[in-house]
Design goal:
Layout (H helix, E strand, L loop, with lengths): L19 E2 L12 H12 L11 E6 L4 H12 L10 E7 L8 E3 L5 E4 L2 E4 L2 H10 L3 E2 L2 H5 L8 H7 L6 E6 L4 H11 L7 E6 L8 H16 L3 H13 L12 H11 L5 E10 L13 E9 L13 H20 L20 E8 L2 E8 L6 H14 L15 E8 L3 E3 L10 E7 L2 E5 L2 H6 L3 H12 L11 E11 L3
Parallel strand pairs: 1-5, 2-9, 3-8, 3-9, 4-7
Antiparallel strand pairs: 2-11, 4-8, 5-6, 10-11, 12-13, 12-14, 14-18, 15-18, 16-17, 16-18
Helix pairs in contact: 1-2, 6-9, 7-8, 10-11
Length: about 500
Amino acid sequence: MFNTKLPFPDNDGQDNHESIRPMAASGFFYPDDKDSLVNMLSGYYQPFESSTIRDDVAAVIVPHAGYVFSGVVAASAFAQVHPDKKYDHIFLIGPSHHVYMDGASVNDQYEYCETPLGKMKVDTALCRQLIKDHPCFSCNPEAHSDEHCLEVQLPFLQYRLQMMAPVVPIVIGTQSVSVIRQVAESLKPYFNDNNLFVISSDFSHYPSYQDAQEIDECTCEALISGSPEKFLEAIHCNMAKHIPNLSTSACGQSAILTLLYMISKRTDIRINHMMYRNSGDSDYGDYLRVVGYHAFTFTRVHGIYADTTFALTCHEKETLLRIARKAIKNRLSHSSLPVCNETGLTSTLRMPCGAFVTLNDGGRLRGCIGRFGDNKPLYQVVEEMAQAAAFDDPRFYPLQSTELRSIHIEISVLSPLRKIGSPDEFVLGKQGIYISKDGRSGTFLPQVAEETNWNKEEFLGHCAHDKAGLSWNEWKEADLYTYEAFVFKEDN
């Protein structure tokens, strides 16, 4: 359940000597009445009550429009944050909508920020330290006084977290890549397990509903790659299309770039897309001129790829194989019984990571479907992929009850994807390959190399052509990702 006991009291009787940033967006972007605001937030969080709660969320990207337009999208990301997580600081980073600056402004003027849910501490000492140590930071009070992009995130955090950490409000007033890199480098030491980064950004501004969907999908794909260069390229490509009324692909691109530069080349951060909507989906919007809203979470990988000692015990492998077979059997018998007793599962089986389930019959492929790691625990992924391989692989007709005894199940537990710059970084036979280009993608598991005896170029060519629907050599122009697989199967 979500936190309904707000951690901050009303400000009646507050110390008049305290320096408090007054609300600028209440009554416009969100209700200025406490009870109305609580009811609204409760409604936005409610659809995500069954979502996986994580204690490894490092950052979120959330929209900053009026709540009636983007509130549920923001909640989809904030709902991933564990309500009992105790952060040292929450870094709030967003774009300046009113003031241009050749850098970023850090608020060191106000000791507290205020919303209808109460006040929260600003770590002014840390703000002043950033200004002192890094010339890319300064304090411009005008950049904070009327700015809504950070303020609208505060009620979501107050409602969600049992313990509200001190905030560090940062408003970026430039799109200079070199300056944004300096900001990112300055903040890197704080990007650790103890802090949460909240990046505030809307996406496409003012195209038609359909154009916004296409533009925002392109921007999303680039952002998920984790590459600052690809993100910038997508922004430029969108503008080069001269789409009517498009003024920007991401109003907070400077804040997003800051985060992407902070995580650049790190292999222990996963980017998860949570939700997309635009203002046309709201009861208050129209389809002619819309604004796009994405939500993302950035989570720390504490699993296979981050931990080279990762291994599945024999018992854990047997458990996953039993889960896979039971899942198929339940589907065949239309049983609603659970496939396993969740309370008896190990922490490894509850770890979020991907898996493929392969079905063979007499040495012949009978189905294979999987997905890369997401927010679901491993045992649930195996359950779902087993049923998908048996009944939803488009290459085969659905499995029949008479076949159940003859099939053999193989499971490949996958490490997170790692982007490579050259096929020289790909180890044939040890790693799988994932190829992505222009919205098309495909993958080969590592064991395919042994089964086919293809060389590396043949492996890549077949994956591009047979799996991604590209031409044979298009892998040379595509994004390449590698991963490892831990493979085990039922005894014959």
